[in-house]
Design goal:
Length: 170
Amino acid sequence: MDAYGALRYMTAQAFVQKEKVFLIGFSNGATGTLYAVDQSGKPYQRAKEMGISFRAAIAFYPGCTKAENRRFKPAVPLAIMIGSLDEWTPSKPCEKLIEHADSPGIPATIHLYPDAYHGVDVPASKVRLRTDVRMKNRPGMEKGVHVGGNDAAREATVRDVDAFLRRHLQ
């Protein structure tokens, strides 16, 4: 509901083009983005009752497992940006989510960046092992997860976000 509270505030401002407000989230915020734009979710249903909606949504490396298990259907055009090597929030559940997420007239796409980890978009960030994030329930990740940018993938995310917003905010 925080995202819709922000949307409600933004659309009340005279300087905001109300029909061009989109939602973007990163990691945990990206998972929240998925919940916010899920057609069957309470946040979207309440926002619909209030007569407000985002124009589009972008989720950078979200956790997709729970959303995929609920048969997520986006209420607005959605793009997921995620590295193929992401261990923290793996891409496979997001790929499955997108396979089943099509709603008539509402595109949902995934941009999978090869050789990229969690934080694919972070500029000048070297890949490193975060030992404070241990995935004891995932074999091979008991000692931590890799995070960090990839210059080529980061440049691709910039192009992909720009193209997505041009297409959906016109």
